[in-house]
Amino acid sequence: MAPTILLSTPATGKTHACISRVREAVKRLHGIPAWVVLPDSLQVLAFNRRMVDAGGAFGVQVGTFGTLYHEILRLAGKPVPLASDAVLQRLIRGVIEEALSDGQLSHFQEIAGKPGFLSILKDRFGELKRAQVQPETFIKFAAKQDKPLQELVLLYESYQKQLREIGWADPEGLNWLAVAALEADPDLCADWPLLVVDGFDSFHGSQLSALKLLGDRVPQVLITFPGDPENDRIAFRRFKRSYERLHAALPEAVIERLDEDVHLPAPLAQFEAGLFEPDPASIQGKAHITQLEARTTADEAREALRWIKARIVRDGLRLQECAIVTPNPELYRPLLREAALEFGLPLRFAHGDPLPDAPGITALLELLTLPLLNWPRRGMLDTLSSPYFDLSPFSFTNEGTIALDELSLHGQIIEGLDEWSGALERLASGFSGARRSYDEATLWPNLPRGEQAQALLEALKAFSDRINPPDARTTTLWVAWLEDLLEDLSFFQRCETLLDRAAALEFREVLRALVLGEAVAGEREAAYGTFTLELRSALESAYFEAPLDWRQPSVMVLQVLNARGLRFKAVAVLGLSEGLFPEVEREDPFFNDAAREELGLEHRLGREQTGLFYQVVTRADQFLLLTRPYLAEDGEHWQASPFWRAAGSTLAEDPQRVRSEEPRSLAEAGSQEELLFWSVRRGALPPEYKELMPRWKRLRAARDVLAKRQAREADGDHEGDLSSIIERIRKTYGLDHVWSSSRLESYGTCPFFFLSASALKLDPRDPPEPGYDAAQLGLVLHAVLEEVYPAVEDPTDTAAVLRALPEVAEAAFTEAPEKYGFRPTALWALEQQELLEILKVTITALGQVSEGWRPYAYEQVFGLQGKPELRIEIEGDDVLVRGVIDRVDRNAKGEVRILDYKTGGSHLSKNDLISGRRLQLAIYAMGARDALGLGEPVEGIYWTIRGAKAGALKLGSFKAFTDEGVFEGPEGAMELARRHVGRFVEGVRAGDYAPAAPEGGCPPYCPVVGWCWRYREGWG
User: What CA–CA distances, in Å, run from 590 to 112, 152, 237?
Assistant: First the structure.
């Protein structure tokens, strides 16, 4: 009997017809099973369920083509072991390495060792085999092509040879072997009474060959196919091309059309009939078809789940009767998972998460790469603080990890065990690491010292010794080493959540597969780097999912291709914006479409994605939701896809556009959290939700805080008003508190800057980088200028100072990395020469503007090191101030000039003193006169070292017109500074720390730059 091809449009009962014929056939069978072949395991499960719902049947084998091939080979007495992904990757890696060693890869040489190249080869080899492209055929084709294809031929031929030698098969190779077995034995499978092939919309070459051979010997072969080859609808174009290939393979097949009516509500039936048609009839489909636009993909995922929950609650659907289809699972999976957790909807994803994305596996890979990357700072700290590793056997504690973090920041540790060990050894031996800032002495904070540093050093050595890999060995021995290491770290015991345990279980399977791969492909020794690369490659092709009971109801989340052949009562299709669905088609860089045509591979361009969309939207039996995001990540408008527009052209209703800021009915809330959020925005919680009142009040209070922070003017206890703890503040900043000019300036810049940096002692934690930063450079240059002038007999003799400069600078540069805690780069020698030139220029220029002035004192300290503080009288009380004056000059009259060195030249103008952002020079002038008794200051300048000139502010010529009067000369500058100090101290003691971005923007070194709600960029 000739095979039968059953044609019909979706929702007309093709699968139901198959089940009926199967049940009829098995009634007449006597122990010989009928076969049903489906595209994937999801459809196998769905078919079995429908068989059970129809009454069930004994003597039916339901599986995929892979199951069918295994059965054919078993019956032929030629069962072949199926190679796992790890085995195949091992074979392909061996093929690549052999070609590289023989010098046969020139084009792919640079990428041959990358895991991605291995995955691409595996994929392309699979395509070639599905199309039944023998190595001999490929060789003839490639002889006329360019170098890349010729190298692919070489790898493909070698791969096939390796498979034959070990006697195993890859999944695609089962096709070839099964077809060969059928060709060799005309009676094989001839006693099968029935073969049903359902749910396919295309077949590749090997499948067509198997169907042709089985169609000639199995009495009844039924193949269902969607669409109508005689219909020129755009929606059927994809199926027409595939149907022609199927009919060419089975020319004697009987074509049968299923004339059943579409089993759908009228709007869905009309939508199916009008989709992609030139002049579709307008459909009133609101009750069954919804188009919804959401602002972002996150909002889109949330709205889709809200719609699903409404169908379950309002329309009585079961969880398993609902599905979500996404064109990009990697994009939508985390968004759907997060919203579903809040909404209380269990999801079941058709594909698991990539194993390397599991947090525990990510941590493990970072651990294993530490020796390869020379123990980088970030990786080291991540590993030591990871919850997946028990480091107590090495005597590591959380406090020790925090101490190492501080050490790495202040010791500029970037990578290298020697750097970690060296820093700890210095601290263990008593090195304090003291270093001076511009105006006050500071120590490295929270650093381990003495016995604590020694204990950390020993713990670090024990840990690194255990992690450091041994010499080259076989994969089996490497796996044993890794398993022992993970046992020592209690890795598997610390995988506690369902997802962690699922990932750990899959990881064990990957390790077993690596050992099996070596057993099959043969042993070879490999270095540690090669093993980790092999492990990473194996992990990248592995997936994991939470161990859910398939009997537990859940909403399915499918990719586009998974959805074919399945039916649900409610289907939500996401991602109908430009570039998502349909996806952007790009030509394959390995096989262009001309080569694909000649080799019989599927095209990468012109894939008729309209047919895929048609199949997806016809999966719904009652309700269909189409969604899209209308804003891209950069905030630009995101164009609708042609599929969205085609669907919209059939619907009478306009798409719904959801904006998160618009008020919505509480009945639409998908969770308690959402209901509370919406009710706070409405200003009231309905009485029926009174049990939520405590949470509602807390959320409303948070709303009020946010509103205040978004107001134009800062006000209130959440905007820096800490007057509620005034007694504590006054105790901290009382009459005995000693201030520095930098702390006072920080309050003048922004009170919140003072609160965060000085009161709360927050510190920007930028990761260390090679070389010095701006502050360290300033310290180095200060040190040279501090020592070079006293090094000569006459400091007014610029030529003598310049002669002494190289020796002084060399000594300062030599100790600078250790003293100031930076890691010199390879350019440090050149940078020293550059800095020396800068110092020469600045000393020369300073000499030119210092005629009549003689350096008198250097690094003059007040309020520190036992020296008296500067006392500034403010309304009868003294404000105590400390500081370090870089240099004091005197003239022949005994008058004093104050010099303060600055590396850069910004914010050194008269206006910076008037605004209170820069008080240092005026305060230092007061300190020299009143605290140190050095004389009456008649001049004061900021000297910019790199600019080799004085700043715009000069105390001798200072003149300011303010609302408080005119301030002139050094006395005027000091009086203005005194008034600023009074206001700032009063503000600090009053608890007034309201954030106020200064004119010109906020300083980039403010510790709260990353999260301050009133931050304004623009500091020069």
Answer: 14, 9, 27
The span from the CA of 647 to the CA of 630, in Å, is 16
Query: Closest by alpha carbon to 321, among 636, 5, 49, 597?
Result: 49
Locate the DSSP E strands across 891-1000: 896-902, 937-944, 949-954, 959-962, 965-968
Which of 827, 781, 765, 820 has its CA nearest to residue 411?
A: 820
- Write out the two tokens for 943: 């000297």
Q: 3-state DSSP helix/strand/coil percent for the chain, to nearest 5?
A: 50, 15, 35
Tens digit of each residue's pLDDT (9 = 90 or more) over 649-699: 999 899 999 988 888 899 999 999 999 999 998 889 999 999 999 999 999
Helices 377-384 and 398-410: angle between axes, nearest 10 degrees:
170
List the beta strands (DSSP E) in 630-763. 656-658, 738-740
Residue 292, helix vs strand vs coil: strand
The string over 696-732, giving b where at least 16 C-beta atoms fall within 10 Å of a residue's C-beta and e elsewhere, is beebbeeeeeeebeeeeebeeeebbebeeeeeebeee
- Cβ atoms within 10 Å, residue 275: 21
Tally of CB atoms within 10 A around 765? 10
- The count of other CB atoms within 10 Å of the CB of residue 458 is 14
Q: What burial letters (b/e) apply to 539-563, b meaning 16+ CB within 10 Å? A: bbbbbbbbeeeeeeebbbbbbbebb
Amino acid in the structure at residue 663: P
H or E stretch including 354? strand 353-354
Beta bridge partners of 559: 326
Residue listed under structure tokens 């789940």: 305
Instruction: Count how many residues are written for the chain.
Output: 1020
- Per the DSSP assignment, residues forming a β-bridge with 8 are 226
Residues 6+ apart with CB under 8 A from 735: 877, 878, 880
Q: Which of 82-91, 255-264, 843-852 has the highest mean pLDDT?
A: 843-852
pTM metric for this prediction: 0.79
DSSP character at residue 713: S
Question: What is the C-alpha to C-alpha distance for residues 483 and 491, in angstroms, rounded to an integer?
Answer: 10
Using a 10 angstrom Cβ sphere, with 0-12 exposed, 13-18 middle and 19 or more buried, the burial of residue 981 is buried
Query: What residues form DSSP beta bridges with 225?
Result: 7
- The contacts of residue 686 (CB under 8 Å, 6+ apart) are 666, 679
For residues 24 and 3, give the distance between their C-alpha atoms in angstroms, rounded to a whole number.
17
* 801 and 789 Cβ atoms separated by less than 8 Å: yes
Q: What region does 55 belong to: left with phi over 0, alpha with psi -120 to 50, or beta?
A: left
Q: Is the pLDDT of residue 905 over 90?
A: no
Condensed to tens digits (0 to 9), the pLDDT of residues 44-78 reads 888 888 888 888 777 889 999 999 999 999 999 99
Spatial strand order of the sheet with 220-226 comes to 60-63, 34-37, 194-197, 220-226, 4-8, 254-257
Q: What token pair was written down for 600? A: 């019989």
Tell me how far apart the alpha carbons of residues 254 and 35 are, in angstroms, rounded to a whole number.
19
Rounded Cα distance between 598 and 606, Å, is: 16
Residue 266 amino acid letter: A
CA nearest 520: which of 869, 814, 85, 976? 85
CA geometry: angle 576, 581, 585, nearest 5 deg:
150
Cα separation, 734 vs 1006, in Å, equals: 25
Q: Compute how many other C-beta atoms are within 10 angstroms of the C-beta atom of residue 756.
A: 22
> From the CA atom positions of the chain, what is the Rg in Å?
39
Identify the bridge partners of residue 98 per DSSP, sorted by sequence position. none
Is 179:213 a contact under the CB 8 Å cutoff?
Answer: yes
In degrees, rounded to 5, the angle at the alpha carbon of residue 986 between the alpha carbons of residues 984 and 989 is 110
